[in-house]
Amino acid sequence: MLSFLLRRLGDVIPTFFGVTILVFLMVHLIPSDPIEMLAGERSVEPERYAELQKQYGFDKPLVVQYLNYLGGVLQGDLGKSYVTKRPVIEEFAVLFPATVELSLMGILFAISIGLPLGVIAAMKRGKWLDHLTMSLSLTGYSMPIFWWALLLIMFFSTTLGWTPVSGRLSVMYFFEPVTGFMLIDSLLSGQEGAFSSALSHLILPTIVLGTIPMAVIARMTRSSMLEVLGEEYIRVARAKGLAPMRVIMVHALRNALIPVITVIGLQVGVLFAGAILTETIFAWPGIGKWIVEALNRRDYPTIQGGILMIAFVVMAVNLFVDLMYGVINPRIRHKR
Amino acid sequence: MKANFVKVALGAGLLAATALAAPTAASAKTMVYCSEGSPEGFNPSLYTSGTTFDASSRQIYNRLVQFKRGTTTIVPGLATSWDVSADGTEYTFNLREGVKFHTTDDFTPTRDFNADDVIYTFMRQFDKEHPYHGVSGGSYEYFNAMSMPDLVKDIVKVDDYTVKFVLNRPEAPFIANMAMDFASVLSAEYADKMMEAGTPETVDLNPVGTGPFQRVQYQKDAVIRYKAFPEYWEGKAAIDNLIFAITPDSTVRYQKLKAGECHVMPYPNPADLTEMEADADINLLSQEGLNVGYLGYNTQKEPFTDPKVRKALNMAINKDAIIEGVYQGAGSAAKNPIPPTIWSYNNDTVDDPYDPEAAKAMLAEAGYPDGFTTDIWAMPVQRPYNPNARRMAELVQADWAAIGVNAEIVSYEWGEYLERTKKGEQGTFMLGWTGDNGDPDNFLAVLLGCDAVGGSNRAQWCNEEFDNLVQQAKTTSDVLERTRLYEEAQVVFKREAPWATIAHSIVFEPVRNEVVDYKIDPFGGHIFYGVDLAQ
Asked: Would you say A278 and A255 are in contact if contact means Cβ atoms under 8 Å apart?
């Protein structure tokens, strides 16, 4: 198991360096000028321009800029935002828990709805229930996030008044964040109603963010289940007279889960991508929205730092998923 | 499976019930403003965006002189009066006594506002050796943009309640500059204390001002909380708490306004305006903006070196169609380079009529009977002065095609666009301007002066007659004389036509009915002192 772990870790390191180069080049090769953007219609004097170039290090060759950047990254310094002048890592730390909270809820929603849907569809293959669940999941998969979110807001928040429109907590509650996770902080605050306010603010963004992964998981579960259900050992189990539910849950589902877990691991990337739009619409103070804003303002250190951190998280999750296979399926960890 | 279903259903029911019980924005005297984004920081001298000014200078701080709310008129602020020397190079400000600074977790003031605070505020920006100059990135873009480093010679403390600004040359717009956000006065005592503690940047993060509201909490991208400062020198604000609920999407802001989750929202989506107007709970305020959207000609590039060509093209543009199609009616045709809300606006100038036949004839007269080929640069961003440059470019393209001028529409990424137009790579281009300080100089000299060629004068237009008038107006503080000079400058502008002035846009701001006495700020700010909530 240890060598398996080391092998996987070894794969991560070059990927990490690759990401730093890619992100750095991507950001610096966009034809744009952050200094001009900062000045806008008003334009800067040439002397001031030169001064700012020096201040931001743009006067040095790209390679030197990269090496400086990499040196900082290796020491845990992602630079300072051009816009807020604050350390990127500090801003990331403040906003990240909000994204994690939303993503966890999103994936929880996706699994708890998608998995049973997939199983039902497989069990009722070709029947109307199968068609229904699969068309539902196709609809979910093709739904533009932006439109879906606004539709939900207009119906549940504005028309029915059941859920708040946006944000993480009603503005009437006021306490300093402790963990950054609103569900936990609202409980810790001891203020009456704060927790349910936090929970109610999570409903719509969770549904919006979880819809696409839910659809993917449902479809994956269905096809994986169908494959397993056709296996001989299932027929044997049925022939032995085992209860149909036991065959499905114990014999089929467990074996069908491996590809599903892979897909769930991959959904983390999808969740972060989805978080960008979801956070913007629901005014959710997370990193998705933060990076979009940084992109619009060509705030290089924030874009680079933000993407790097996300890449890091996605790599960590995938590493975890890989290790999970090893746990579930011994054949994988003993390979090679 | 069944159990799962029941859980989900139960959960949904519970949440729906709690949502109903959740408090709304209607609690007593707490005003909720759905702002469009997070501020860059809380020291307005370090930043340039309106979002930052809304969150800082406009609630937390004061300036020596200020704009009367809802107007561009300058009134006393932290200075009760000021004198200008006969040669116009010395401005002496008499400071207000008994003004208190906010008390925060980091700082308890031991003295009232005085001259030291003014000296600290400006020397920090002006003097590169000042211990605070480099703190928090140390770039003072507005101070620089208003040419303050060249203009100011010295800032002198005469006594505790008198400060003198010595200038290198007479400059009438100086007093208007002093009312701008970058001139917000910070506490020198707080700065000293934080420097001693080794955390100077705290001054810019946790603001201490003299303004009507003091900041209580800021959570990036989520919320900013303020409470009314009880010892505010103009009297405590009518509302007790002010909350900025940061909501970047305009459609969502509107939904929040409808649901009563906020009282005021900025920048509504033009498509929502009709519905807002019909909504009985919402009061849709509107006012002509302090801006101008224009199409500029590169006057150093053939054939735009000839005023006749520029005039001809102006006459070919159907402005009414643009105002309908691009501004969706929320704009008024512009004839001068300054908006009518600015003093010295010359109402006697005559706009170039929309007359394609006459345009064609004039083009022939200029030596282009068959027209020519050129480009129209369209900005890639949306601005209040031009909500859709691409669409505008298409309309102009069609208008010009009718007189034989074939124009290709060109666009670049915003930073690139700004840089290239500055260098003069364009034939014709779209841009605009929103006023900073309500002084005509802020439009005429900044955008059309000879000094600004290669900078913000992207038409690259340097006309001696025009420039003399504008420069002369700068050096006299007699408002009547200045008005006369600017009016004349506008006549020259019309005659020479370096731009096709397109429109001044109308600013809309929906507020809920319970909001009392909210005024649209001509500078695009959002100011909550003086606003009340009906119970």
From this structure: no
Q: How far apart are CA B490 and CA B343, in angstroms?
A: 12
Pairing of strands B428-434, B373-377: parallel
Contact, B24 vs B233, CB < 8 A?
Answer: no
- Which chain B residues are Cβ-neighbours of A43 within 8 angstroms? 418, 422, 452, 455-456
B contact test, residue of A58, A99, A153, A172 with most B CBs within 10 A: A172
| CATH topology for the A90-333 domain | MetI-like fold (1.10.3720)
Task: Collect the ranges in chain B with pLDDT lower than 50.
Answer: 1-26
Cis peptide before B522 (omega within 30 of 0): no
Pairing of strands B79-84, B152-159: unpaired
Surface-to-core class of residue A142, CB atoms within 10 Å of its CB (0-12 exposed, 13-18 middle, 19+ buried): exposed
pTM of the complete model: 0.85
Chain B residues in contact with A55 (beta carbon < 8 A): 137, 139
Is residue B83 helix, strand or coil?
strand
- Confirm if B268 and B286 have CB atoms less than 8 A apart: no
Count CB-CB contacts under 10 A for residue B499: 28
Q: Do B252 and A283 touch (CB under 8 A)?
A: yes
- Which residues of chain A neighbour B382 with C-beta distances below 8 Å? none
Q: Would you kindly state where each structural domain of chain A is located, as residue ranges? A: 2-74, 90-333
Per DSSP, the residues of B451-514 read GGBTTTBTT----HHHHHHHHHHHH---HHHHHHHHHHHHHHHHHH-SEEEEEEEEEEEEEETT
Q: How does pLDDT run across A78-101, given as a tens digit for each residue?
A: 888 888 888 999 999 999 999 999
Nearest CB to B256 within list A32, A116, A165: A165
| Interface-testing mutation among B8, B18, B146, B253, with chain A (most A C-beta atoms within 10 A) | B18
B446/A153 Cβ within 8 A: no
Listed as own residue / partner, the contacts of B144-153 with beta carbons closer than 8 Å and 24 or more positions apart are B144/A44, B144/A45, B144/A48, B145/A39, B145/A42, B145/A44, B145/B48, B146/B177, B146/B180, B146/B182, B146/B436, B146/B437, B148/B177, B152/B122, B152/B126, B153/B89
Residue B183 is classified by DSSP as: G
Cα B146 to Cα B183: distance, rounded to the nearest angstrom: 11
DSSP B28-66: TTEEEE--SS--S-S-GGG---HHHHHHTTTTT---SEE
Q: What is the pLDDT of residue B17?
A: 40
Q: Which of A45, A150, A199 sits opposite B251 (nearest CB)?
A: A150
- Looking at residue B341, the DSSP 8-state letter turns out to be T
In which element (H, E) is residue B421 found? helix B414-423
CA–CA distance, B297 with B400 (Å, rounded to integer): 14
Helix A88-123 and helix A254-281, axial crossing angle in degrees, nearest 10: 130
Q: Amino acid identity, residue B443?
A: F
Are A162 and B137 a contacting pair at CB < 8 A? no
Instruction: State pLDDT tens for residues B239-288.
Output: 999 999 999 888 899 999 999 999 999 989 888 888 999 999 999 999 88
φ, ψ for residue B245, nearest 5 deg: -95, 110
* B75 three-class SS: strand
